[in-house]
Amino acid sequence: MTRIYDCTVVSDYATGMRLARSAIARGALVVIPTDTVYGLAADAFSPEAVQRLLDAKGRGRQSPPPVLIPGIGTLDALAVNIPQPVRELVAEFWPGGLTVVLHAQPSLVWDLGDTRGTVALRMPSNPIALDLLADTGPLAVSSANTSGLPSAVDAATAAEMLGESVEVYLDGGAAGTGYEPIGDRAGDTSSTIIDATGFHTNGGKLVIVRKGVISREALAAVVGDALAPEGFVAPVAATPQDEVPAASAREDATGDSTETDVAG
To answer: Where is the region Disordered (predicted)?
Structure first.
């Protein structure tokens, strides 16, 4: 039977983490806290587990989840053609609320959905998520909600939506409390998503594809003119559609303006 484990209690934390690791290894789903919203996690290298994640959310392969990673060192293992400005941004803002969309390593044996060769990556700033990632490696993580509903910012809300489709819920308290809500989007603490897939063909620009908790001003302070101006028209490129993520949360990208991204 599905259970929520209170990670503020030492015994629950130890048991919950052990069962979460076991669930991931068996291709089951786990809900975890991140610094932005709660995430629905699966083994990124198990096509069956990723499909289970999409099914639980009521989403199709056209909405591939982003991938959460345990450290900056994992970036080069999962992506290629990484622009220097991206390295500067992740050095500044990881772990934290920045998702970067890059070209995936072509040698990787995984199937996240219809990514068209891209992957959205983020290193979350949450000790529970990082503890699990340190043991499991990269996880496909989408926002812990069913499609069309707001992302969960606590474990109980995630459980109400996802129920028995999830084997283990890790409760780390309210998510997103370390960030200011985004503009007039009350309660929205989504990650900022940067698309770097066109950098080498669009004049060396990184494009903000979703505004989030890392402001344009903060990004520009690090990379300057490498950040594309607002209104910049980039070549059409595939970006993962889901936010935990998962990597867009705007209606024009996902068809669901209420969903936010954990990974992203």
So the answer is: 238-264
Express each pLDDT in 71-114 by its tens digit.
999 999 999 999 999 999 999 999 999 999 999 999 887 888 77
* Domain span including residue 174: 3-254
Residue 262 belongs to a domain: no
Residue 25 lies in a domain: yes
Q: How far is CA 231 from CA 106, 178, 209, in A?
A: 31, 29, 11
User: In total, how many domains does the chain have?
Assistant: 1
Q: Is 8 exposed, middle or buried (0-12, 13-18, 19+ CB in 10 A)?
A: exposed
**Can you read off the two tokens belonging to residue 36?**
């932005």
Dig out the tokens for 6 from the structure.
């209170």
Question: How many Cβ atoms sit within 10 Å of the Cβ of residue 225?
Answer: 11
**Pairwise CA distance, residues 47 & 4, whole Å:** 26
| Pairing relationship of beta strands 79-80 and 139-143 according to DSSP bridges | unpaired
Query: How far is residue 228's CA from residue 133's CA, in Å, rounded to a whole number?
Result: 32
> What 3 state SS string does 124-135 have?
CCCHHHHHHHHH
Does residue 251 have a pLDDT over 80?
no
Length of the chain, in residues: 264
Would you call 54 helix, strand, or coil by DSSP?
Answer: helix
* Angle between helical axes of 10-25 and 127-136 (0-180°, round to 10): 40
Whole-model pTM?
0.88
* CATH code of 233's domain: 3.90.870.10
Beta bridge partners of 40: 31, 142
Q: How many CA atoms lie within 13 A of 147 on its CB side?
A: 18
Confirm whether 249 is domain-assigned: yes
What is the Cα–Cα distance from 120 to 11, expressed in whole angstroms? 34
Q: Is residue 261 part of a domain?
A: no
